[in-house]
Amino acid sequence: MRTSKILLSTVCAIALAGCAQSMEQAKSMSWAEMAGTLGGAALGGYAGSYLGGGIGQTFFTVMGVMAGGGAGYTGARILSQRDQAMYSNTAQKALAANTNGELHRWSNPETGRSGIFRTVASYQRPDGSQCKQYRSSVVFDDGVASAGGDACQQPDGNWLAFNDSFR
């Protein structure tokens, strides 16, 4: 079963390469964009494989690979490593806070990028893990991008986000 999940995740990650509008666009991807796409696909597939059961689990794994790959590509393309670290630190602090609706801000004077992160609702999964829905926005040179997602607290205390466009 584990081998089939890995194989399915790999096939979906390769299929993501077909999403490029042209072969020239695919050839012009940087190493960071490729690593972001593959890393996001792997993390998304891994996270998705823990949701649902049977065919539902396969569906969540495939969707996790696709969403994670897209999010990884987008994140690698538009956020610098320092921006991503600041975003992740802010997200972890906001998710660890006990209040929903509170805005948590970050700003990187080196790139001029900034953003906000806000938890919207808290809930508990059937397995007992604590989860939160959130919304986040990042200010770029050409406008503001907003996204949302869910994150669940892991046994080590960190929060694992699902389908986050900025990580």
Summarize it.
By secondary structure, the protein is an alpha+beta fold. 47% of the residues lie in helices and 26% in strands.
Structure description:
By secondary structure, this protein is α+β, with helices and mostly antiparallel strands. The chain has two domains: 77 residues, no CATH class; 82 residues, no CATH class. Helices cover 47% and strands 26% of the residues. The chain has a five-stranded antiparallel sheet. A hairpin with a 5-residue loop joins strand 2 and strand 3. The mean pLDDT is 75.
Structural class determined from secondary elements: alpha+beta
Strand content: 25-35%
Sketch the major β-sheet: 5 strands, antiparallel
Number of strands: 5
Q: What is the gyration radius calculated from CA atoms? A: 16 Å
Number of domains: 2
* Poorly predicted residue ranges: none
Describe the strand arrangement of the main beta sheet, using strand numbers.
1-2-3-4-5
User: Which whole number gives the mean pLDDT?
Assistant: 75
Instruction: Tell me the distance between the termini.
Output: 28 Å
The shape is globular
The helical percent reads 40-55%
Number of helices: 5
| SSE succession | HHHHHEEEEE
